[in-house]
Amino acid sequence: MMPGLSLDLHEGADRNAMADTMDVMTAAFDPVFGEAWTLPQLAGVMIMPGTWLTVARLDASPLGFALVRSVLDECELLLLAVAPLWRGRGIGETLLRDSLRTARRRGITSMNLEVRATNNAIQLYEKIGFEYVHRRPGYYRGSDGQLYDALSFRIDMGI
Ligand SMILES: CC(C)(COP(=O)(O)OP(=O)(O)OC[C@H]1O[C@@H](n2cnc3c(N)ncnc32)[C@H](O)[C@@H]1OP(=O)(O)O)[C@@H](O)C(=O)NCCC(=O)NCCS
Questions:
Q1: Separation of 119 CA from ligand 1 center, angstroms?
Q2: How far is the CA of 128 from the centre of ligand 1 (A)?
Q3: Three-state DSSP class for 144?
Q4: What is the pLDDT along the chain (159 residues), one digit of tens a residue?
Q5: ∠64-97-73 over CA atoms, to 5°?
Q6: Which domain does 147 fall in, by range?
Q7: Which positions are annotated as active-site residues?
Q8: Residue 90's domain is classified under what CATH number?
């Protein structure tokens, strides 16, 4: 893990954590794909039981986050993002591995995710051991009207 990086787990309507997350969100997602969430969308999910947010910070500055929602023994990686200037240093991988550890601690046995078929994040998911499940043609619509397929991936963690 990068020296000095802290990973903080947040649950519920934590305003500071959500503000930090929105800072990264705004910088991290290309507006062309319309994938960034708004603060009300984030707040709506944060108050649901079984949701947790992990924020990576360096000297209190947020650099990345992972958002996971769980139901019983399954969970879904809803969002994973690292601020552009901080990419390629292992922060995304650290956040994802930490989310999997948190899931395991909670007795969760699998994590699912859905990603645009043209997203480089797929290489991270495959590196960690996620397996391709299926393709949804034209699932995402970019701001230019172009349609992009979604791929779903899953990792089974056993018990
Ligand atoms: C995906 C994302 C979170 C990766 O964060 P990151 O901190 O740069 O990733 P890491 O440095 O931890 O990369 C770990 C591994 O992932 C893969 N990877 C990450 N980014 C990659 C890229 N752009 N191209 C190819 N492989 C990549 C590599 O295998 C890398 O391992 P390596 O360094 O040993 O080669 C970041 O690019 C991002 O925020 N993207 C925009 C938001 C997004 O689309 N999120 C995913 C959908 S919610």
A1: 9
A2: 11
A3: coil
A4: 889 999 999 999 999 999 999 999 999 999 899 899 999 999 999 999 999 999 999 999 999 999 999 999 999 999 999 999 999 999 999 999 999 999 999 999 999 999 999 999 999 999 999 999 999 999 998 888 999 999 999 999 975
A5: 110
A6: 5-156
A7: 114, 125
A8: 3.40.630.30
